[in-house]
Amino acid sequence: MNQKEHFRKFVYQTAFDSRTSRLNQLKAVHRWKDYLVADAYEDVALEYFAMRNSTGVFDLCPMTKHKISGPDALDYLNRLLTRDVSKLKPARVSYCVWCDDDGQVIDDGTVFHMREGEYMLCSQERQLDWLSISALGFDVTIEEVTHDIAALAVQGPTSCAILRDMGLANIEKLKPFGITWFDFEGSELMVSRTGFTGDLGYEVWIEPAKAEALWDALFAAGRIRGIRAIGTHALEMTRIEAGFIQAGVDFLPADSAVRHGRTRSPFELGLSWLVDFKKPNFTGRQALLAEKERGSRFNLVKLDIEGNKPAKDAYIYNGKNKVVGTVTSAMWSPTAKANIALASLHAPWGKPGDDLYAEIYYQRELKWNRVKARATVVEGVFFDPERRKVTPARDY
After folding, report:
1. Number of alpha carbons in the 13 Å side-chain half-sphere of residue 167
2. CATH 2.40.30.110 domain extents, the chain
3. Is the peptide bond before 348 cis (omega within 30 degrees of 0)?
4. What superfamily does domain 297-385 belong to in CATH?
5. Closest Cα partner for 377 from 344, 333, 336, 335?
6. What is the pLDDT of residues 313-341, one digit of tens each?
7. The domain 6-61+149-230: what is its CATH number?
8. pLDDT in tens, 217-235
9. To which H or E segment does residue 47 belong?
10. How many C-beta neighbours within 10 Å does residue 345 have?
């Protein structure tokens, strides 16, 4: 069956399924769009520490990928996205968001400027309908290529050394958010220095027919450096430590919202740096200009919470015992040695020094307990190692 006819089939295995299914001792999986992906393979803690101390490999095949090309590709993307895409040179990647007419975020993702006039937009959610509607009046071709590209996230301090040992010469010279290409068994292997862990890491992209060979070569090269397949639970831990947001968790995509007031603007997600009012018109510009003038409704902040009980879905109170927000993501961080969280707070709350508390409920032996723990607003991120940015990447 032609995989592009995904509406004819309910569930797909990824291009790496023959390898990942053998490793999945827990048989813990969930559906990411049309694919089955592992929550964890053997032990979440071991997978997490692999990414922080050696290398973790995550199957990225289900990530939604759109190829955007044509004479108006740049003008189209500049109209769609809030940041100035004209500044993105070939062989570079940028983080981006796009909004509806009300300035509310539909999704975030990465835009790859592959070659002159050729782009790839990657996101968690399917966006073909919105992208097609937004293309009205532009000479541009938009194609969803999710099924046509197999991808892996290779993340952790030994990731560069493993790729080099696999035969990718001079990979250590690739700068953060850079792209380079290699020959792999007669196919083009694209490597980008990108990832969702806040650590040194890469993403590798290849045609599905070469996926198994790529997996085997990667794991053979990484055997002595502690390479390990990792699932979504461990990846979730690293992205919270890095302070990265996730659609459907830290914000509700505007095109799927039912209730008014549940969505967020880039300003309300701490992404004002992605909004460029100096470039020509883009979708949501007028609404965002108005919001900048009057102020935002919410602030997304990072919190350091006392104690060691994760504040999952907790209410945040001020010193007068009034609810001022909610936690969107939370965990005990083994690396930061702290109880950390991302939270959406009603403005003006969310400034360093604010008197805040998290109401945490947790269960022990069928008994529910309640604690109210002090929450401190954190500036910067919880985890930001030097190795993430250094070029050439160091050997570990």
Report:
1. 10
2. 297-385
3. yes
4. Aminomethyltransferase beta-barrel domains (2.40.30.110)
5. 344
6. 999 999 999 999 999 999 999 999 999 99
7. 3.30.1360.120
8. 999 999 999 999 999 999 9
9. helix 44-53
10. 25
